[in-house]
Each structure stands twice: as C-alpha cells, then as structure tokens.
Design a protein that fits this description.
- The protein has 378 residues and is of the alpha/beta class.
- It has 3 domains: 3-46 and 146-214 and 307-368, FAD/NAD(P)-binding domain; 85-137, no CATH class; 218-304, D-Amino Acid Oxidase, subunit A, domain 2 (D-Amino Acid Oxidase, Chain A, domain 2), CATH 3.30.9.10.
- Helix content is 28%, strand content 29%.
- The longest helix is centred in the last third of the chain and has 18 residues, at 333-350.
- It is globular and about 60 Å long.
- The relative contact order is 0.20.
Length: 378
C-alpha cells in the first residue's frame, strides 16, 4: 500500500479507535495504520491499570469519559468491572473535590460526596483519621486494557482498515500539508490526512513535521499485590499523592506515580519502589496492607503533556492543516480512546466536532503557551 486517504501513525488504542470511527463515519475510506510492533510489547495500553472514571474537573474530560465508559461496557470481551471510583482528600483538597463534583453532576455523572464520617461508615477498613472528604462514583470501573486494544483493532480491520507493520521515519510536507511518510522499510505512504497517534513517541513523530509538542515519556510502575487480611470490597481508590489501586482477582493492582521521574524511554523496573514508597502509603491508608506482598511489578509509559496534563487533540491551523495530533493523554488514554478517536474522525470527515467540542484541547493552547489544566486528583 503506497497511498491512502488517511494514514494513522501508531496502532495502539488511540490509533485503532481513530480508524474505527473514521470508517464508521465514512465507510470505504482507505485507512492505513502504521504500527512497528503488532505484539504491542512496549505499548502503553497493555501496561495500564484499565481504569475509567468520570471524576475530572474539565467538562471535556468528563464528557469523553461518559462516552468511553458506555463504549467499553458494551464490549463483553473486555471484562468491564463496575467497581466504582473513590477519590479521597485531606482538608486542603475539599474545595477542589466539591468543585469537581458540581461539574460532574451537572453533566449527568452519578457522584456522591462523602464527609469524614461517611467515609468511615462506607469503608471501615480505611484509616480516615487524616481525611476530610471523598467523592464516590459508583458507575465507574475498570476493564482488561489489552482486551480493549484488541477489540478496537479487530473492529478497525473488520471495517476495512489496513495495518502496516512498519515505522514512520520521515515526513515530507509542502505549504500547510504533509503529503508523504517515509517508512523504515524504505517504502513511502502518501495520504490526504495524517494522524499522529504515537503516544509516548508522539513528539518524535511531530518533530518530523516541524511541529513542537510538549509531550514526554514518563515511566510509571504497576504492581500486583495481595494481603492475607480481610478488606471489604473496594472501588478504585486514588488520592492527591497519586496513590491509586483497585481490586484484581485475589489481590489488587496499582501503584504510586512519581511525577518527578526523569523523562525518557525507560522500561527498567525498580523493585525497591514498592517496598519503600507504595507499601508505606498502602499500609497507612489501609492497615490491612501491613501484611501485603508484591507478587509482580511492571513498567509502562505515560505520554505526559508537560504543559498541563491534558491531551493535545487537533491540527495546527494554517501551518499543518492535514496533520492531526491525538496524544499527550498523561495516563488517561485508554478511557478516552473511544471519544478521542471519534473526535478526530469528525474533524477529518466533516471538518468540525459534531459530538463533544474539544476545541479547548487543541494545539492553539500549545502555540499560545496557555495551559488548560485538569485540577485536583490526576
């Protein structure tokens, strides 16, 4: 294949979702997805926790989550677990939590605010001595992220998309349009539109087109751990210090993201991180985790947007009109993949957003250096 209508660079959850919705919007489009590793050994989604929640502060993120959760729940093969989410804060975080709750509920999300006493009643195994409030969203949950990726890939192929096992190593453009991608194999791929869905590698792809992106790879660890002590059924628990975990089989899956982790493509595993950082945080919050044992640790990458932690979705008007970025999700890519894929498809096929207006997540804020941050727990 040397020419197509749309060339998607990156065949993970985001890129596959873009292909699915392009072909839903306009059947018959020639869509090529360039993915160097169809085993997805180092892709972010298979290494993710699989959580999907409505507990955001930006209306766009809430709306994307609402669509994404409905999309994911409708796929029986992904094993959706409606365990809910619980955000917990100390006194300093109450105002932010309440502001988020007002936005979430105004947009139709079912979220309950719990005070100190309410947290103690609902979750008796949790140490709430230093907590002031929580936000509980019972309709949120988690799934098997690798199964979701494969479901998106299967649909894209069934609708007519072509997966090309190769790597884009150069882009050629003239005026405000990219016209050709050079592949590592030596071939070329011409297209009317190009989509940069390369995740943690998105900055490298954008550099080929002269488009600066403030996206860096951020290593984070996921741990599977068990405790012999009894704990009541828990939702996906998150706090302001970035401790986050959820039930998984006989145990739990989660971790604590180090925001100061040096940026780079590092997949090494630091086995001391659980013992020195995660375990103390778990045991403080749930004393039953004093006896916790970590059974497995793996690493993955966030495509971290260094400007504000929100994704970059859209083109560079007047400079790169047909080069569309959909990256920088900073850990929220799996849950927002369906909505982001639909958004890019709408922009390419119709020239405008027709469902969720994501203009505030566009590239113009990068050019203007005007952050549009997600507030509260990230």
């Amino acid at each position: 294949m040397d020419r197509c209508d749309v060339a998607v660079i990156g065949g993970g959850a985001i890129g596959s979702s873009v292909a699915c919705f392009l072909l839903r919007e306009q059947p018959g489009l020639r869509v090529a997805i360039v993915e160097p590793d169809p085993t997805y050994e180092f892709a972010s989604t298979p290494r993710a926790s699989g959580g999907a929640r409505r507990l955001f502060s930006c209306p766009e993120n809430i709306a994307m989550s609402m669509f994404g959760i409905d999309f994911i729940r409708a796929l029986p093969e992904v094993g959706w677990k409606p365990g809910g989410y619980l955000f917990i804060v100390q006194d300093a975080g109450v105002a932010t939590l309440e502001a988020g709750w007002r936005t979430q509920t105004a947009l139709g999300a079912r979220v309950e605010l719990l005070d100190h006493a309410g947290l103690a009643r609902r979750f008796p195994s949790m140490n709430v001595a230093d907590l002031a409030a929580g936000a509980w969203s019972p309709d949120d949950g988690w799934c098997d992220p690798y199964a979701l990726l494969q479901a998106l890939r299967r649909e894209a192929r069934a609708l007519g998309a072509t997966y090309v096992k190769d790597r884009v190593v150069a882009l050629a453009w003239e005026g405000a349009r990219v016209h050709t991608a050079t592949l590592e194999s030596g071939g070329t791929l011409a297209a009317d539109h190009f989509v940069n869905a390369a995740g943690a590698w998105a900055k490298l792809v954008a550099d080929m087109a002269g488009m600066p992106l403030p996206i860096e790879p951020l290593r984070r660890f996921e741990h599977y751990f068990e405790t012999p002590n009894a704990i009541e059924p828990l939702p996906y628990v998150k706090d302001l210090d970035r401790l986050a975990f959820r039930p998984e089989g006989r145990g739990y899956s989660g971790g604590l993201v180090n925001s100061d982790e040096p940026r780079g493509f590092n997949f090494d595993v630091d086995h001391n991180w659980f013992e020195t950082v995660v375990w103390p945080a778990l045991a403080h919050r749930f004393p039953a985790f004093e006896a916790v044992r970590c059974k497995r640790t793996w690493s993955g990458l966030y495509d971290q947007c260094e400007l504000d932690g929100n994704p970059i979705i859209g083109n560079w008007p007047g400079r790169l009109d047909n080069f569309h970025v959909v990256a920088g999700f900073s850990g929220h890519g799996m849950m927002h993949a369906p909505a982001a894929g639909r958004a890019i498809a709408e922009r390419i096929v119709h020239g405008e957003y027709r469902t969720i207006d994501l203009a505030r997540l566009g590239y113009s804020r990068i050019v203007a250096n005007e952050p549009y941050p997600e507030c509260g727990i990230i």
